[in-house]
Amino acid sequence: MASAARRALLVLTVLPLLALAACGYGSRAVDDGTVKAVAGAPRTDGLDEIRIGYFGNVTHATALVGNREGFFQKALGGTQAKYAVFDAGPSEIEALNSGSLDIGWIGPSPAVNGYVKSGGKNLRIVGGATSGGVKLVVDPEKIRSVRDVAGKRIATPQLGNTQDVAFLAWAADQGWRVDAESGTGDVTVVRSDNKVTPDAFRSGSVDGAWVPEPTASRMVAEGGKVLLDEAGLWPDAEFVTTNIVVSQTFLAEHPRAVETVLRASVETNRWITAHPREAKAAANEQLRADTGRALPAEILDPAWASLKVTDDPLAATLRTQAEHAVRAGLLERPDLDGIYDLTLLDKVLEGEGRPAADDAGLGVA
Per the annotation, which location comes first and is thus the protein's main one (predicted)? Predict the structure, then answer.
């Protein structure tokens, strides 16, 4: 068994989410000509451009729709919104660290990972984006109830990622013992790239998977059954899937620009909620532009329905997710004090007559 320090280092190396995006590293700039800065319009904070990152995934719905419908660009006026689409959390964190990205949409695990590895110096979570969209999908011929999961092979996206930790915590709640690092025990945990998990499920090499959307809906399309929606395990059926992060340097130097992006994010989420059908179509069109392929309706529709856009970063659930990783033995208790700075979000919310967001005691002093 690895030492506690080695386990912590391992998890901090592999803790990226997400889950919610294709796994594989790297990013690519996107410039599909959707909306351009208005020539001669005032620039935000005197900036020529703001570099915005997100994943080409429905769990980043706010960024997809905000890009496609021009909410961010309209808010930024003469400052050009430049977009980069990332395949995984580590590359987005690296971009923030290197200064090649200013603000981004990202999942909780890479945010925690990046914050802890930098000693609390590289990023802040400044807003919320989405909740939900994670399911346990199983082969209904092999698994008909929760008790049937025992002894089966269940895929998760990556050792120590958000869904992996959630499954290990849930398995422990069932009374099953699993060695977190090897994945062996009363249930076998198979760490599998989200891109290949549906194929592994089809071939029978795994019996189910605890995965984010749209992987869950892809598996259902392959004959799987949703045994459990993770939202049902959380108070009010809400838990953080995607947040907005910003480099601390950019936040300190350009708070007005960050506030402008947050204001546009809040406006985007309001539009998504008021126009769900149009928003779903807009997100899919942006996915087509970003990845070269839109999602078919049988996958997009259930994936979209399981998500909820939210301005609230749901900080208490991030704290709980970190506690689950500690309980699983995958992470030494991290110091997350100061990971949130919700000052600018609260300013935007206050201007709309809405209550301030809760940072769960993890805000900047």
Answer: membrane
